[in-house]
Amino acid sequence: MHQKVNSLLYASGPDLINTIRTLLVLTEPVRIPLLEEAVAKAALRFPYFSVRLRKIGSEYVLVPNPRPFVVSPGGKAVTLGTEESHDHLFAFACDGKRLYVDTSHFITDGNGLFPFIRTLLYYYLSALHPEETFDTSHIHLAGEEIPAEESDDDPYPDHFLPMDDVLPPPSLPEDVFTLDQPRGYGRAGGWTSFVYTVRQKDMMNFISTVDGSPATHIASLVYRAISEEHPENGLPLVCGMQHQFRKALGRPFSHLCHVSIIPMVYPPRLRGRSVEQLNTIARGTLLLRADDASDIRTVNAHIRTDREIRNLSLAEKHERMRRALLEGIGRNTFEVSYTGRVPWSGLDRYLELVVPYLDMTLSGGLSVEIFSVRDLFTVNIMQRNNDRRYVDRFERDLADHGIPFEAMAPEPFTLCGFRLPEA
Predict the structure, then answer these.
(1) What's residue 339's pLDDT?
(2) pLDDT at 169 exceeding the cut of 80
(3) How confident is the model over 74-118, as pLDDT tens digits?
(4) CA atoms of 216 and 317, how far apart (whole Å)
(5) Of 167, 184, 187, 52, whose CA–CA distance to 107 is shortest?
(6) Are 368 and 337 a contacting pair, CB within 8 Å?
(7) Residue by residue, what is the 3-state secondary structure of the chain?
(8) What pLDDT, in 10s, does the model give residues 344-391?
């Protein structure tokens, strides 16, 4: 049985691998035999992730992959879709207390991934701590019925959704300021992660006074850091805010990737504005561009693109989808993504930290992932070099606003690779 691939997969290539690495720091060193058993059990509940890619004519399809998932010691990041990963689009690694979950962003996003991670942790921690009783009300278990809307490989309707009261697409400036950093995936080395932890209470106490949210506030601080570091710049900056549109699609539990990019434009006249003003502007943009009505346009665009490429050659599909993807994400100065609160069912007692790593653009070269676990926000600022000038200004802003934080040592990181099948 074949599964349909997300049409965005045709945009992939050596310089656009679009992968996610999620780090979970546990309270105890990871025991590989127990992890392998937990991975195998979790895979039974999520069979749509136990797949490999095949090329049939001018199409890619997903087919069941009975081979076991790879669990690599030493935290090794493998290349998905190759023998290194047993042809899977998921892989796992561990190093001391660190557990890594690697996957392709072409097949899922944070909202589709974390139910799997929660199930994996449940099976692992239940074996590690048999004396514990965990609340399974939010945990998917092997053997239970899988809802069709969760596993459906083509959740989009076959007709366009009505578009009453939908704003026209946002107009972007022709020239956007980009950072002086290498673009794309051709340069695999030199990536650095700057991770900060902030108590949610401290962050939200301040955010509530400036009309902000975690995502808009972090975006405002990163904008200030970049604009202040480049006072000579006369071009607008653009933050690509990642946003998922499952609600408008009517499939809140779909496992597929349903992420769009909302551009927040900062023209030069905003330089020097207060954090309160920047947060208000960002919140206003999200209210206009991230509502259900506007998401309908995203759903319809996906349907339209899917129809357009249906009868194209494989090379034409690659060209068309690459253009479509770059039109949406190719002109950002930086990106911000906030997964939101995840119900852990008590599993977070054994978690010290959760840090997502992601870089899917060919643009500015700076990405921020925000995640929450227990009473902490984790802010991961990722660059393609180890230059501290932006994070130093980010730290000063946090301190000036009275927001206590802890900074982990800057750390080089590598994302897992991804390769399309040749036959």
Answers:
(1) 79
(2) no
(3) 999 999 999 999 999 999 999 999 999 999 999 999 999 999 999
(4) 35
(5) 52
(6) yes
(7) CCEECCHHHHHCECCECCEEEEEEEECCCCCHHHHHHHHHHHHHHCHHHCEEEEEECCEEEEEECCCCCCEEECCCCCEECCHHHCCCCEEEEEECCEEEEEEECCCCCHHHHHHHHHHHHHHHHHHHCCCCCCCCCCCCCCCCCCCHHHHCCCCCCCCCCCCCCCCCCCCCCCCCCCCCCCCCCCCCCCCEEEEEEEEHHHHHHHHCCCCCCHHHHHHHHHHHHHHHHCCCCCCCEEEEEEEECHHHHCCCCCCCCCEEEEEEEECHHHCCCCHHHHHHHHHHHHHHHCCHHHHHHHHHHHHHHHHHHCCCCHHHHHHHHHHHHHHHHCCCCEEEEECCCCCCCCHHHHEEEEEEEECCCCCCCEEEEEEEECCEEEEEEEECCCCCHHHHHHHHHHHHCCCCCEECCCEECCCCEECCCCC
(8) 889 999 999 999 998 655 556 789 999 998 899 999 999 888 889 999
How buried is residue 164: exposed, middle or buried, by Cβ count under 10 Å (0-12/13-18/19+)? Answer: exposed
Grade residue 64 by pLDDT with cuts at 50, 70 and 90: very high
The type of residue at 277 is Q
Q: State how far the alpha carbon of 68 is from the alpha carbons of 40, 92, 108, 127, 223, in Å.
A: 7, 11, 20, 19, 44
Given pLDDT bands bounded at 50, 70 and 90, which one contains residue 155?
A: very high
| 342 Cβ contact list (under 8 Å, min separation 6) | 114, 118, 372, 373
